[in-house]
Amino acid sequence: MTGSGRTIRLRDVAEAAGVSQGTASNVFNRPEVVREEVRERVREAARALGYAGPSPKGRLLRAGKTNAIGVAAAEPLEYFFADPWARRLMTEVARACDARGAGLALVSVAAGQPGWSIESALVDGFLLRCGGRELLVEIAQRRGLPFVALSLDHAEPDVPAVDIDDFGGARLAARHLLGLGHRRLAILGIGLGAAPDRVQPDRVRATRYMNVRERARGYWAALAEAGLPEAEVPILAIRDDGSNVGAALALLFDEPEPPTGLLAMSDKVAMAALGWLAERGLAVPGQVSVMGFDGVPEGARTEPPLSTVEQPFRRIAERAVAAILDGPMPQGREVLPLTLLVRGSTGSAPNGTGA
């Protein structure tokens, strides 16, 4: 800016230095092609006029490529640092970006106003942590940049997504406990309400969250293989952060025949259950086996270490990052399998509790 408030532009610097605007542009963007004495003359003119250099935004827009990816979630930015699943996924996304020399930007959706940030972020595309056709997807579609949805709540044929086989992962988890002889099982559900109560299967089937429905369906499929009706396996509504797990588990462990195996729909809930069982003096896995779902790093450090089914975080990140930077984009929802991780929190059913 000049003293009169007029914005100083590159052409003003070029005129003051007695060079063409192209030469002045090269001084700032390709200095190696300009003679040293010309470079100094242009820089001196820029200093005298108070010109800070060309706009990074304008330079990136002219180039048509920023080599950076934006990540947005429906939750506040702190979610990426507070939630174990989000931290693990972001670690792998960061690694995938580092391997390609690409930048990574967390896009704020604070106060429920995501439009300004998604619509203005200087990135080549977005990874969206969202449920389905919701505000984030609609704004990304209007922006016209590539985007990949992660962890969908319901499938959308025209929403490119990289997701996991929730059904297959849950079936693996339940088969593991059943194979250890457990027949008194309970499911620790998420996304089913905040009250720590027992819920009926119809309520689980009616939830809007596809991952919850699919995980329950996977558990039930394994139970059916073992000849156990789904009605005989209680389902508890647990908050996503596991904060009410104690009140919920008390509903079952105060009964004469409590469960010997717990199938948690997330590692966070499973870890909360381990803490409550330890407080009650219940041995894991001697009296109760606990099975998680996700494969977050914290699960390996619990006492005992948590058995779980691990999401393919690295494959998810590499596929999503490659899709944004190079293509091809997923055609609808791409589904990746999970892996069974057997650790110390699961063991054989206590004597007298098997089939």
TrEMBL record:
<dbReference type="InterPro" id="IPR046335">
    <property type="entry name" value="LacI/GalR-like_sensor"/>
</dbReference>
<protein>
    <submittedName>
        <fullName>LacI family DNA-binding transcriptional regulator</fullName>
    </submittedName>
</protein>
<dbReference type="Pfam" id="PF00356">
    <property type="entry name" value="LacI"/>
</dbReference>
<keyword id="KW-0805">Transcription regulation</keyword>
<feature type="domain" description="HTH lacI-type">
    <location>
        <begin position="8"/>
        <end position="63"/>
    </location>
</feature>
<dbReference type="InterPro" id="IPR028082">
    <property type="entry name" value="Peripla_BP_I"/>
</dbReference>
<dbReference type="GO" id="GO:0000976">
    <property type="term" value="F:transcription cis-regulatory region binding"/>
</dbReference>
<dbReference type="GO" id="GO:0003700">
    <property type="term" value="F:DNA-binding transcription factor activity"/>
</dbReference>
<dbReference type="InterPro" id="IPR000843">
    <property type="entry name" value="HTH_LacI"/>
</dbReference>
<dbReference type="InterPro" id="IPR010982">
    <property type="entry name" value="Lambda_DNA-bd_dom_sf"/>
</dbReference>
<keyword id="KW-0238">DNA-binding</keyword>
<dbReference type="Pfam" id="PF13377">
    <property type="entry name" value="Peripla_BP_3"/>
</dbReference>
<keyword id="KW-0804">Transcription</keyword>
